[in-house]
Amino acid sequence: MTLRQDHLRWLYAPGIFTFGYALRTTITSLIALGIALWWELGSPQWAALTVWMVAQGTRGKSVAKARWHLFGMVVGTVCAVLLVAAFPQAPLMFILMLAIGIGSFCFIGTLLPGPATMTNYRIHGMRASGFTYAIISLDGIADPEHIFMTAMARATYIVLGIVLESTVSSLFQFKLEERAQDRLAANFLTAINGAAQTLASLLSGDAQVLKKARGVFSNITTLSDQIEFAEVEMGSHRGHEGDHARAALARVAMLLSRGLDLAALMQGPCGMPDAAFAATSSKVEAFLKDMAPQLEASEDIHPVLARLAALQAACRQSVADSLDEEMGSPGSAPTDPQLVQMLSQQRMLNYALGEILDELEQALIQFDASRHPLLHDHFHYRLKTFRDWQQAFTNSLRASVTIFGSGLIWVTTSWSSGLTFMMFVSIVCSLFSTLEKPALATRAFLGGAIIASIVAGILVLWRLAEPTTYEIMAVCLFLPMLAGGLAFAYPALVLGAVSYNLFLPILLGPGNQSRLDEVAFFNTAMPLVLGLWYAMWSFRLVLPFDTNDMRWQMRTGILRGLRYIARARNLPTTLYVVEHNVDRFVRLLTNAENTPDTIIDAYLQGILSAMTIGLNVIRLRAILERHLLPPEAQRAVSDMMGRMAQFSGRYGGHYGRTARSAKFAIVHLQQMAGQADNLGVRLEIDSALTCLYVISYELDHNQKFFDASSPYLDPVMA
User: Fold this and answer.
1) Which InterPro entries match (predicted)?
2) Which pLDDT tens digit goes with each residue over 448-499?
């Protein structure tokens, strides 16, 4: 019987790695708590909390998060001291600047490279800045004269927790560099195998190939996000393996985009391949199916590259044979126009297949460079970010309004626990305002906080009333903390587990000279629960996330991007276009929620189609800049590009003109194809026709998506 990890299986039957993580982190947090008590620090619970905040399942993630957390702590500490020093007796200005400060951290964090998830530790640096800024300033405003000592105490807890977690986790690593290298290779093999199987299905005539490609695109993004952690684990001895691995995964995405070109050609006018193309494509299909096992079985990539080179030569030979048949010998009779068109279309198929193989070759070369570091290598592949200013402003304003509202509650009610309430609201805003759906994350956090309150209540009011030594207290805390560590590894409970692990030490409030009584405990637990509940509803009411609006804005941005590519002086690279649309692709899937599958599928198809059009527009502009086309052909393509520059503009109505101009350019280039005697000009015409065929096909089959006058599939936008 297959065991399923559901219900309480994560607690009574955890995996060995999950249990190891939970045990290691529990012991480390208790050590941090013990040292803080030994040093007689005022709030030792913050040291244990920091351990849980930094600790992750792998060494690379832990170190990366620790570095950015330390950076955020320094920034937040400096800003908190300046805030309290500036407004010690002005509560409204203090609240306003606290809200603006955390909003600014959210604004900056949203614009940093990488996805806005809890695994992106650049953004976590800004979250840690807001977190530290809040806890120091809100603690220090009650005693402004000692703000420097308060800040140093809080910074000491955080540094202690970070150092201990990093030290203890390093003791449990074995052959870390080798395992990191193996993980880089495994990630690429997973991505390239998915892409290869998708392309093999395309060549076999599978009509559902585009749906398979969607999963591969999402997988590429996920795997690429993990590379920086492997780089950390490789340590000081690493070279540019991570850069090559990122470039290899980017090439896999480019490989799939080339596959979309071939799919458009096969389903369009070129969809009846001749015997030569059928023979070559069957060989390529067989090669793609068994390529990944070959790469996994041996580190020597040369046999695979040799087979690939033979297939590339076969594609080039097919193109040459077709040209020879069409152009004939000098002085021979003109070729039949229908035959010219048929031969041209077959060359397009062979050309597109050859481009797929060329992209595959580049991906394999980058993969080999990541497995076998090169001497004196200076290769660098920069991380891309596709954040927009509107989203950053929305996240910032949402956090600022929520925190300022909590401050007004404190000022107007004179609540004795108002500062504690504000602190918890500020912590949640710092952590979740950079997410697109902070209300859902806060709801999960609220559930974890309620469980932590119940467990802490039992411990504070019953078990911890008896121990007189640290050792007995640690025994009492061991099992509750271990349970939180086990829950962290279960995806369905991860946010609730984070909340539980963070807030349990705060609710316990251990100290050398005191214990929490019933009043002190409830004055901490009640502001915690109320603060998270308030933040959850504030996130729902203040600039709430709307999936319909997100998709509409995404579609508008896609149409605007196509116009920009057609007329921009500085063209974006093809890799940039692919990665930007893959980012949109993943964002759409991440925020699907309860949206009907038909709408999600239609938008995914639209994104892939827009990416395909954008890439071919870039290639057409490169053709125009070479000035090898005959003047009439150059003019026809330029007219089409002019229409594309106004494509689906603000007032609509340009979609039909662009589609017609693409067909008009195809007709003109086909008429001139048989008249070109120069081989270079003939090949240039074929290249332009390939791009035009693909653009025309995509415009015809996704008309509603590209026509800005159409509300498309969202009833809310209609």
Assistant:
1) PHBA_efflux_AaeB/fusaric-R
2) 999 999 999 998 888 776 777 888 889 989 999 999 999 987 878 889 999 9
* Residue 273 to residue 698: CA distance in whole angstroms: 20
Instruction: Please enumerate in sequence order all residues whose Cβ is within 8 A of that of 239, keeping only pairs 6 or more positions apart, or say none.
Output: 373, 374, 377
Query: What are the tens digits of pLDDT across the range 300-343?
Result: 899 999 999 999 999 998 888 888 877 764 445 455 777 777 88
Instruction: Write the DSSP assignment of 539-607 as a string of letters.
Output: HHHSS---HHHHHHHHHHHHHHHHHHHHH-SSPPPHHHHHHHHHHHHHHHHHT-TT--HHHHHHHHHHH
| Cα angle: 621, vertex 625, 631; to 5 degrees | 100
Task: Inform me whether the pLDDT recorded for 717 exceeds 50.
Answer: no
Helical H segments across 173-208, by residue range: 176-203
pLDDT for the residue numbered 333: 47
Q: Three-class SS of residue 686?
A: helix
Extract the tokens encoding 463: 């078990």
Give the other-Cβ count within 10 Å of 115's Cβ. 19
Most confident of 287-301, 377-391, 698-712: 287-301
Compute the distance between CA of residue 140 and CA of residue 138 in angstroms, rounded to an integer: 6
Closest to 21 in 3D by CA, of 172, 238, 155: 172
Q: Which amino acid is at 66?
A: A
What is the rounded CA–CA span in Å between residue 216 and residue 591?
Answer: 18
Nearest Cα residue to 527 out of 682, 380, 396, 409: 409
pLDDT class of 556 with cuts at 50, 70, 90: confident
Of 501, 496, 499, 503, nearest in space to 484 by CA: 501
Quickly tell me which residue has 């400060």 as its tokens: 101
Query: In the predicted model, what is the mean pLDDT of the chain?
Result: 85
Alpha helices in 596-678 (DSSP H): 597-626, 631-645, 655-673
What is the model's pLDDT at position 718? 42
Q: How many CA atoms lie within 13 A of 464 on its CB side?
A: 27
